[in-house]
């Protein structure tokens, strides 16, 4: 698995959107590095004898720009807040869920939006979800220091922190740190307060990580002690025996997100295979593979039932008694405003 992640990451960092793992030429999946693990969609391989062809990207905005510019794929794997953008651009078409029997087991809360499902059909098949919280080196960072999100402002950690190069995740952090838990109702004053907080946090940042593998490497090398992290970076560190903690319950709270697959309009491959791929992804057996490979939860209630007692679920995906900012779809104009401001902050303005 480390070899797969390394090859995919090298492609992402090169800026190329080309197939990194060429296999079944009749289905091209545009995805985050790491999700090419065959055990996640084993049913597809059992039926067709091979994995799909994979191409990779580093973040949601990069993926959108490449697809909007003409890169051809059959399915792609955005997170929920991007779906309206794909719909508005006319890049996707509804799924035929009658060809995805396991779709019926998706927890209804993941489809509770007309952006995902309306009278025209199902535009988004949610598959995976996770948390964004504080990853820290337990040997160098006392637990009391990560009891607050303001650890990212602490002068003691100047040059020792890392944030994701993802506008959605850093704004989730900044809103939480400044008392906002619902980013669908952000005032100008709240936006300004969050931006000011991010500028202060920027002073401590050694690097903005582009991929969980990069974040894990930054921590494992000793370059940073604290990161705003997804589950998968923590899993990579744990698998390597690194002393990592995952603080999901600082007093201001933490964030959750969910992602899934869209059906690209005029995809070059086989539409039947695209639907079979989705059905394999939603099979109960994929939950354990997803958890062990990425550290994420599954959107299928039946699938989650098979892993409910796993330590990784109890430690990284259980309910917690702090505020949660759910990264659900928000106003596209507000999101673009956040993206533009984040670029200024990273540039030092």
Task: Write up what this structure looks like.
With 349 residues, this protein is α/β, with parallel strands linked by helices. It folds into two domains: 24-129 and 257-317, 3-Layer(aba) Sandwich (D-Maltodextrin-Binding Protein, domain 2), CATH 3.40.190.10; 132-256 and 321-347, D-Maltodextrin-Binding Protein, domain 2 (3-Layer(aba) Sandwich). 36% of the residues lie in helices and 21% in strands. It contains 13 helices and 15 strands. The strands form two sheets. Strands 1, 2, 3, 4, 5, 8, 9, 10, 11, 12, 13, 14 and 15 form a 13-stranded mixed beta sheet that branches. Strands 6-7 form a two-stranded antiparallel ribbon. The longest helix has 15 residues, at 188-202. The protein is globular. Residues 1-18 have low confidence and may be disordered.
Broad structural category: alpha/beta
β-strand percent reads 15-25%
> How many strands?
15
Mind summarizing the main beta sheet? 13 strands, mixed
Number of distinct helices: 13
Radius of gyration: 19 Å
Instruction: Give the C-level CATH assignment of the largest domain.
Output: Alpha Beta
Total discrete domains: 2
Pfam families: SBP_bac_8
Main location: periplasm
Signal peptide: 1-22
Keywords: Periplasm, Signal, Transport
Strand and helix layout:
Elements: H1 2-14, E1 19-21, E2 24-32, H2 42-48, E3 52-57, H3 60-68, E4 75-76, H4 83-88, E5 92-93, E6 117-118, E7 121-122, E8 125-137, E9 161-164, H5 167-177, H6 188-202, E10 205-209, H7 212-220, E11 226-230, H8 231-239, E12 244-247, E13 254-264, H9 271-281, H10 286-293, E14 297-298, H11 301-305, H12 311-316, E15 324-326, H13 332-346
Parallel strand pairs: 2-3, 2-4, 9-10, 9-11, 13-15
Antiparallel strand pairs: 1-3, 4-13, 5-13, 6-7, 8-11, 8-12, 8-13, 8-14
Helix pairs in contact: 5-6, 5-13, 6-13, 7-8
